[in-house]
Amino acid sequence: MEETSLLCLLFLISLLSCITNQARLTVSPSSSQFFIRDVVSLSCEDDSSAGWTLRRNTSKQQRTQCGDVWGRGSGSSCNITVFPSDSGVYWCESREGPISNMVNLTVSGGSVILQSPVLPVMEGDDVTLLCKTKTTPSNLPAAFYKDGSLIRKQPTGHMTIQHVSRSDEGLYKCDISGHGESPSSWITVTEKPIAAVIPATSSLPPDCSSLQLAFRVVLHLVVFSPYFISTHFMMSLYRHRAKGNKLCILISPTHPEHGLDDEHDDVTADVTTEHHF
Asked: What are the pLDDT digits (tens) for 150-197?
């Protein structure tokens, strides 16, 4: 019973995660820093037909929409040629109210930027940071810093952090000698989700369509279970009464037999009396 309840709960949680349809904001090229006049594409990725709008907060404007005073919008996507005034926080917002993840974009007026993940990275993944200049090749020697402290110097201008953990979360920047220093960007590390423990004899469907089918089965069981329980109860009650009636039938004939014996005795007495007379 407990095993069935656990599976039903897992089905419901998975189904809810499939039908929530929260948009995910993606950035292309995938970076949190850009040079002036770089073309950046923002997109709200979502499997549903819900309408999503791209909005942003900058130092001068709040909750402005793509296509109004910045960018060129097409559906749930937006292209923008960036300038320093475009630095800020961007997100997707639906008409119903929910919003997506937020990303912080920085447009540098300098000659060096740090190309780092714009979205959170998962624990255990490898992350590569690239220190690049606007006009020269991106394989120049560079120094990388975390929270103001030097991590290491790389002769090729890129550094890979293997199997990142929560301790790697922080503020990163880089420096190329003779060219300058990049702005700082925050790298977020998220915990790896814990896999649910499921009995070996059971498995969850791999996609949402299967989950929806399973949910319907569970729903039917929930709806019809009271009917089956009440039916079983009535049948048990009927059987109990049937056994009681049968027991009464088996016991009640003993009384007529007793009556017949008395009648037989009376007849015998009469016969005996008449013979004596």
From this structure: 999 999 999 999 999 999 999 999 999 999 999 999 999 999 887 644
| Residue 96: exposure state from Cβ atoms within 10 A (0-12, 13-18, ≥19) | exposed
- Does residue 198 carry a pLDDT above 50? no
Q: Parallel, antiparallel, or unpaired: how do β-strands 189-190 and 121-122 relate?
A: parallel
Question: Does residue 84 contact residue 106 with C-beta atoms inside 8 Å?
Answer: no
How far is Cα 143 from Cα 216, in angstroms, rounded to an integer? Answer: 57
Per-residue burial over 251-263, b = 16 or more CB atoms within 10 Å of its CB, e = otherwise: eeeeeeeeeeeee
Q: Which residue has the tokens 């499997």?
A: 47
CA distance 114 to 181: 9
Written as six digits, the tokens of 185 are 């960007």
Widest distance between CA atoms in the chain: 153
Provide the 3-class DSSP secondary structure of residue 272: helix
Cα separation values, 269 from 2, 25, 27, 53, 275, Å: 74, 111, 116, 111, 10
Task: For residues 103 and 123, give the distance between their C-alpha atoms in angstroms, rounded to a whole number.
Answer: 19
Classify residue 70 by its DSSP letter. Answer: B
- Average pLDDT of the residues of the chain: 76
Return the sign of the alpha-carbon dihedral for residues 216, 220, 223, 229.
negative
CA dist 112 and 107 (Å) reads 11
Sequence-ordered list of residues with C-beta below 8 angstroms from that of 65, at least 6 positions apart, any chain: 53, 54, 55, 73
pLDDT digits (tens, 9 = 90+) for 224-271: 455 455 555 556 665 656 555 544 444 444 444 444 444 444 434 443
- The whole-model pTM stands at 0.63
Residue 87, φ and ψ in degrees, nearest 5: -65, 135
Strands 88-94 and 180-181, bridge-based pairing: unpaired
Instruction: Write phi, then psi, for 84 (nearest 5 degrees).
Output: -55, -30
